[in-house]
UniProtKB/TrEMBL annotation:
Top-level taxon of origin: Bacteria
Sequence ranges assigned to domain PPM-type phosphatase in this UniProt record: 1-130
Coiled-coil stretches: none
UniProt signal peptide: none
Keyword tRNA processing: no
Alphabetic keyword roster: Hydrolase
Alphabetized GO MF terms: phosphatase activity
Family annotation (Pfam families): SpoIIE (PF07228)
Presence of the UniProt keyword Hydrolase in the record: yes
Protein name: PPM-type phosphatase domain-containing protein
Biological source species: Streptomyces shenzhenensis
Amino acid sequence: MTALLLEIPDHSPVARMTVCGHPTPLLIRHGTVTAVASPHTAPPLGTWELGPGARTAHAFSFLAGDTLLLYTDGVMEARGPTRTFYPLEERVAHCAKSSPTALVHHVRQDLLAHTRGALCDDAALLAIQRSPTAPLSGLHLGDLVHGVGRQVRTHEEHQQTV
């Protein structure tokens, strides 16, 4: 099982993440897309015993107006009819100036077009945009989560559509 732990403090331009075998998020800043690299990547959870400090958090800047796109491996490993992997970073670059909701919608639609609707693994997307406004008091989770898309198909369901 993989995991990505993400800490985004309210009043700091620095976020921290701990990666345990999970894909790292894409950072969209001023229309430019970059993968957030983590020099400290731990193996997936439960693969072996780790000592204290083996899972280290990595700090990176997350400024007002930035968007993070989190995704599961089912997105980046989705294959098209010619067995090519889905080019996530390239496709996100085409809609990098979109709102978080539009970004998730576009990537989901494009992913389903790439695979002709036949996802063989779970695929989840979450876009988080850093707001330039003050504290988050009084907001609900629905106000913060701008878009989530998910589709799960079993191997049997996939075979029925082929």
